[in-house]
């Protein structure tokens, strides 16, 4: 009888302890803010719990994520996490852990909750990162764990509002390029990075900007408000290690009084109204416009181009400037801009021309850096195509040859017949006019010792069926030019100068009354 | 008598054998001859026709090197081996042009480049086949490429009046460009703007 009573007591105490443990877990282990894990494979979520006001993660979750072998050594009263041949030893109730023989301090010891071992989030950077063979970067403020060599800059926002405008400043650390484009009732700020560690604050409610949010890994979406009329992107600047991108949103009343390069609405918004009657047969060229620009970053892949004495490579330089230029044109002129290649890959001359021709580009700009046998040679050169005997014949022929072809949906249109290899022949006047404008703008920007114009049988230009130039921005073989070309100031300056040149050429092409005369 | 018969049959056999060999040779020559004539470049024909004794003779030729500014070519009179005929002389001139020059002259031709063959057409176009080192050792850049190509174009068109255009081949093949800029798909004519003196 007595033994039965003792059994009841023992059972009751056991139940009470279990209940107390569960209540304790509930009290002390609350749901924490999950951590976003960014890697080349994509995004994953690492759950976190809050124990006594401290953010902790499960060792089992870390084990699954990073292929750690977690073992509990009851004899040694320790828990081990092994990755390949390296082991982290943790001891309950001790804040010191051994990471591959090196003692590391954590803000709190390992704890056990609901049959799981939990470690403070600082464990990732302090103990796990040193033994892991891939870079781990846990950012506590943004709850972001970056795995591998991803480019994930921090992005913060600032607002500066007036009754008629709102300036939104994005500070990106470290420096990255960004482009601003408009898509219907939103602006997209795309940063040239793998992802963003963004800290976005709510904008002032004045009817210009509704909200700010992440559209995807590297793009901020700005939802435009009712009062929004147009926007402009100010030239990118730098502040310490950060690049600063400022977008100014203008209210309807402010647009007309604003001077400066206000962005035009997107082409779709300004397209001609659709005629009510069916389209007639149209023969002959449409009114010339400048809407699509193709930028060709010279070289790529195993074709590195010129190498500077300090190690700068032409292919990297041209890509960096091409991206800046793309952002500047899109932001200021609202044009469609395509690069002939986005990554580090080698493509042939015909593929570059084909991309421009197939996208019906209105202008083709190939960016290069020069090299000379004399290290003292400096300066920029703008090249257009020169024609040989065959090319001159093609030029004469291109003015005459055309065919009227049927158009889908009825009707017909006149199509010029151009030999692919010499498509550039009939655009030489436009190319030379644009080259002249570029020369003028590049001289005005300063920094370059000289700017010259040349006509040469250039392979990359031969197949382009639109005005086209090849710009040698300077001599990478010269140490001073190399320093200049690789500086952010010059790269921003050249992006602005070329955007100015495109704006002038657009006026020239589209027949704006005050457009300058074409260059000789 | 027996010996004579034996002798006659032996002689007859010899004639028959000789006639067979000549006949087969003639047929092969008739069938393959035109093909050989069509494929054997003029350069090779000219090479075999050259008398070794003529090699010692020299002529004065204008060779082209990088100018002081590094953006053009300067002409320098130098002695070059004499070659019999346009093709053979072209070979000697190109060999002199691609050889490393004495200081302070600077060559626009990458080191290690060798001449493989030279072809010449009736239209006045000369095809200069150079070794792969021309591309492999090239430092890149439009100006470097212009100087390399126009050094070869200029040296041939200046010294050999019959040559009006020059196309560069690399390792026996036509090439798009040398370093990604200049269009080398067709013969290039002399362009005086690259020659500064």
Describe this protein's structure:
The complex is a heterodimer of chains A (520) and B (197). By secondary structure, chain A is α+β, with helices and mostly antiparallel strands. Chain A folds into three domains: 32-147, Copper Amine Oxidase, Chain A, domain 1; 154-265, Sandwich (Immunoglobulin-like), CATH 2.60.40; 292-510, Aminopeptidase. Chain A has a six-stranded mixed beta sheet with strand order 25-24-26-31-27-30, with helices on both faces. In chain A, strands 1-4-5-12-11 form a five-stranded antiparallel beta sheet. In chain A, helix 5 crosses helix 11 (488-510) and helix 8 (428-445) packs across helix 11 (488-510). Chain A is elongated, with a radius of gyration of 31 Å. By secondary structure, chain B is of the alpha+beta class. Chain B has two domains: 2-39; 48-194, no CATH class. Chain B is 42% helix and 20% strand. In chain B, the strands form two sheets. In chain B, strands 3, 4, 5, 6 and 7 form a five-stranded mixed beta sheet that branches. Chain B has a two-stranded antiparallel sheet with strand order 1-2. In chain B, strand 5 and strand 6 form a beta hairpin. In chain B, helix 3 (85-98) packs antiparallel against helix 5 (142-159). The longest helix of chain B has 38 residues, at 2-39. Chain B starts with a helix and ends in an 8-residue tail after the last strand. Mean pLDDT of chain B is 83; it is low at 33-55. The chains are: A alpha+beta (520), B alpha+beta (197). Chain A binds chain B through residues 298-299, 303-307, 314, 348-349, 368-377, 381, 383, 388-390, 421, 456-460, 462, 470, 472, 475-477, and chain B through 66, 68-71, 106-108, 139-144, 146-147, 176-177, 180-186, 188-189.
Helix % of chain A is 25-40%
Structural class of the helices, strands and pairings of chain B? alpha+beta
Secondary-structure-based class of chain A equals alpha+beta
Number of domains of chain B: 2
Tell me the name of the CATH homologous superfamily of the largest domain in chain A: Zn-dependent exopeptidases
Count of strand segments of chain B: 7
Biggest interface: A-B, 37 and 27 residues
The residue fraction in helices of chain B comes out at 40-55%
Instruction: State the shape of chain A.
Output: elongated
Coarse shape of chain B: globular
Strand/helix succession of chain B: HHEEHEEHHEEE
Number of helical segments of chain A?
Answer: 11
Mean pLDDT over the residues of chain B = 83
Main beta-sheet strand count, sense and barrel state of chain B: 5 strands, mixed
Oligomer: heterodimer
Q: What would CATH call the architecture of the largest domain in chain A?
A: 3-Layer(aba) Sandwich
Span between termini of chain A: 117 Å
């Amino acid at each position: 009888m007595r033994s039965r009573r003792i059994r009841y007591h023992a059972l009751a105490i056991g139940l009470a302890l279990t209940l107390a443990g569960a209540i304790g877990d509930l009290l002390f282990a609350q749901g924490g803010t999950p951590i976003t894990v960014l890697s080349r494979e994509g995004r994953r979520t690492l759950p976190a719990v809050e124990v006594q006001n401290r953010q902790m993660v499960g060792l089992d979750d870390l084990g699954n994520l990073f292929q750690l072998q977690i073992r509990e050594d009851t004899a040694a009263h320790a828990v081990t996490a092994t990755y390949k041949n390296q082991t982290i030893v943790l001891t309950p109730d001790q804040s010191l852990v051994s990471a591959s023989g090196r003692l590391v301090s954590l803000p709190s010891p390992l704890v056990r909750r609901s049959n799981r071992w939990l470690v403070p989030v600082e464990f990732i950077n302090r103990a796990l990162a040193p033994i892991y063979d891939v870079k781990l970067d846990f950012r506590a403020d943004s709850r972001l764990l970056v795995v591998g060599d991803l480019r994930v800059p921090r992005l913060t926002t600032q607002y500066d509002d007036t009754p008629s405008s709102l300036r939104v400043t994005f500070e990106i650390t470290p420096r990255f390029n960004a482009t601003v484009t408009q898509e219907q009732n939103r602006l997209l700020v795309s940063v040239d990075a793998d992802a963003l560690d963004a800290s976005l604050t709510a904008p002032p409610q004045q009817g210009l900007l509704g909200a700010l949010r992440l559209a995807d890994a590297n793009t901020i979406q700005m939802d435009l408000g009712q009062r929004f009329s147009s926007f402009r992107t100010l030239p990118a600047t730098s502040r310490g290690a950060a690049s600063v991108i400022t977008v100014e949103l203008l209210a309807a009343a402010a647009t007309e009084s604003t001077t400066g390069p206000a962005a035009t609405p997107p082409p779709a918004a300004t397209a001609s109204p659709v005629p009510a009657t069916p389209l007639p047969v149209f023969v002959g060229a449409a009114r010339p416009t400048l809407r699509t620009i193709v930028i060709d970053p010279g070289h790529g892949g195993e074709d590195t181009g010129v190498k500077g004495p300090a190690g700068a490579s032409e292919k990297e330089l041209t890509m960096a400037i091409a991206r800046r230029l793309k952002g500047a044109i899109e932001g200021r002129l609202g044009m469609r801009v395509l690069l002939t290649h986005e990554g580090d890959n080698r493509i042939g001359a015909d593929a570059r021309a084909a991309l421009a021709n197939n996208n019906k580009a209105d202008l083709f700009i190939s960016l290069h850096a020069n090299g000379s046998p004399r290290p003292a040679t400096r300066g920029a050169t703008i090249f257009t195509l020169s024609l040989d005997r065959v090319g001159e014949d093609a030029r004469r022929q291109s003015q005459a040859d055309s065919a009227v072809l049927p158009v889908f949906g009825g009707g017909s249109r006149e199509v010029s017949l151009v030999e692919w290899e010499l498509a550039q022949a009939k655009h030489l006047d436009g190319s030379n006019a644009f080259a002249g404008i570029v020369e003028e703008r590049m001289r005005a920007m300063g920094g370059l010792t000289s700017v010259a114009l040349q006509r040469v049988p250039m392979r990359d230009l031969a197949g382009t069926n639109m005005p086209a130039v090849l710009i040698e921005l300077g001599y990478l073989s010269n140490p001073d030019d190399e320093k200049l070309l690789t500086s952010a100031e010059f790269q921003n300056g050249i992006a602005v100068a070329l955007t100015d040149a495109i704006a002038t050429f657009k006026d020239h092409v589209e027949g704006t009354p005050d457009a300058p005369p074409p260059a000789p | 008598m027996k010996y004579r018969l034996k002798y006659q049959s032996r002689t007859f056999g010899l004639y028959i054998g000789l006639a067979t060999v000549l006949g087969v040779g003639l047929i092969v020559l008739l069938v393959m001859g035109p093909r050989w004539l069509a494929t054997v470049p003029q350069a090779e024909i000219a090479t075999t026709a050259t008398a070794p004794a003529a090699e010692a003779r020299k002529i004065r030729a204008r060779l082209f090197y990088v100018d002081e500014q590094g953006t053009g070519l300067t002409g320098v009179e130098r002695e070059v081996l004499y070659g019999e005929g346009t093709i053979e002389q072209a070979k000697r001139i190109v060999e002199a042009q691609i050889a490393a020059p004495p200081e302070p002259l600077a060559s626009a031709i990458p080191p290690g480049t060798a001449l493989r063959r030279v072809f010449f057409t009736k239209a006045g176009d000369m095809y200069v086949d150079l070794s792969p080192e021309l591309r492999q050792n090239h430092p890149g850049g439009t100006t470097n490429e212009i100087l390399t190509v126009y050094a070869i174009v200029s040296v041939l068109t200046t010294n050999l009046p019959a040559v009006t255009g020059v196309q560069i081949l690399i390792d026996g093949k036509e090439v798009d460009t040398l370093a990604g800029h200049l269009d080398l798909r067709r013969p290039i004519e002399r362009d005086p703007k690259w020659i500064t003196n």
